[in-house]
Amino acid sequence: MSDKPVFLATHPRACSTAFERVFMTRRDTLTCAHEPFGDSYYYGPERIGERYANDESARESSGFSKSTYRDVLDRLEKDGSEGKRVFIKDMAYYLTPPNSQPAVIAKSLRKGGDDDNYSEEGNPTVLPLDILKKFHWTFLIRHPRRAIPSYFRCCVPPLDEVTGFKEFLPSEAGYAELCRLFDYLREQRVVGPALASGEPNGTGNNNNTANGSGSSGVSITVIDADDLLDHPNDVVQAFCRETGIAFTPDMLTWDDAENQDYVSEAFAKWTGFHNDAIHSKSLTARTQAHKTVTEESENEQWRQKFGKEAQEKIRACVDENIPHYDYLKSFAMKF
Q1: Structural domains in the chain (count)
Q2: What is the CATH number of the domain that holds 242?
Q3: Measured between alpha carbons, how far is 235 from 228 in angstroms, rounded to an integer?
Q4: Does this model's pTM top 0.85?
Q5: Sorting pLDDT into bands at 50, 70 and 90, what band is 268?
């Protein structure tokens, strides 16, 4: 079983912070890094994100204007040198240039000098393959019809005054980038070819025993947020089994002042995005399943909430990303 740092790669509004809170209760054995690559993606000298490209004051005030991808990796390495395993939750798109632009390796990570075109064939990220191999990769997804309207809400009034995200950027939906990263890691046998199993003790059809040459020994572990919300105990147990993290039932409860103070500080740099997770006390199964809705009723709901122009933007972004979600869903653990 791998003892590498666990990297949970996801997209915005996938319930990933609620899932991360589970592992933040295990400070005896784990050190959690909350979206560390956003520092270099948005603000640093190697930034590839669009949002603050022309806003130097925002980059400076963030405190991360000098953070390179090497700086982030050095912090993660330091976290792992303190006798605990590192658990990283981050957006796949923080590693990948937006709008399907070709990726070049971040300057601070290049071995070939200062060549601005230094890249690796097939690698969609700014991290070289030898660094990608250092992590135990896992994935969390949520249907775009729920994740994208939730993200849109964070980028428009009144919440935009809190988050600082003043515009909804479809390039930050994150599904396409997650797919490209996922496929590359599979092609390079960093994960797979065996699928993770949601069955107790790995007894299901997707047995996590990898056979044959070229097997990484790291299962393809994809979690759907709906499964997490419906079966939190089973999902967390299965995830722990696949990653080699010791599971205890009390990981799903954090109703104490020490845990609350810890997460409030950890989530502070993304103000407004994680309020529900910060104020939660546990991860319990939801009591009501999502109702089946039609495209027409969704459109009307979004129109009433955000206006007609916004509804059209949301619909276009949802429809564009459903195929990416469906593809990743085909690899998800079954519960």
Answers
A1: 1
A2: 3.40.50
A3: 6
A4: yes
A5: low
